[in-house]
Amino acid sequence: AQFYSVFADEVSSHNIKHLPICICFVDNENCIREEFVSFIKLQRVRAIDVANAIVTCIQNLGLSLSDLRGQVQAKLKEIQPKAVYTHCSGHALKLSIVNSCSIPSIRNCIDGMKSFTIWVKYSPKREGLLKAIAAEKTQYIKKYLA
């Protein structure tokens, strides 16, 4: 893919700051892909240090900065300098999952869930069956909790 977006957020582990970097792009089959590309140890976490680490990572991957897209936070800051950025808990969860993928049992579990999701997604019959089962189980849980 020519165009891509970057998401990164520094995390701490044992008083050491790290910067996991992920790239988001559309692959040749028009599927959105998010790939973990680097886990950088940061000496300092000033904005300029984080920005430089991201730029260096992008250059090391051989990607062109002119093809970088997105980066909504910077655009909003241009419009309203007082805007405050906070990341969502979903992003924090995703970073945790990315870090956990080095553990074989977790990586295999996530791969299994991904395969199952694809298997269901590309069959309307299987997708319908799964929705029916989920609805049935939801009704049972509602009854049980009532």
What does this structure look like?
With 146 residues, the chain is α+β, with helices and mostly antiparallel strands. The protein folds into 2 domains: 5-102; 109-146, no CATH class. Helix content is 51%, strand content 20%. It is built from 5 helices and 4 strands, in the order E-E-E-E-H-H-H-H-H. The chain has helices at 47-60, 72-79, 89-100, 104-121, 124-145, and strands at residues 5-8, 11-13, 16-26, 32-42. Strands 1, 2, 3 and 4 form a 4-stranded antiparallel sheet that branches.
Residues in helices, as a percent range: 40-55%
- N- to C-terminal distance: 50 Å
> What are the segments in which pLDDT stays under 50 over at least 5 consecutive residues?
none
**Annotation, overall tally of beta strands:** 4
Strand content: 15-25%
Protein name: DUF4371 domain-containing protein
InterPro entries: IFN-induced_PKR_regulator (IPR052958)
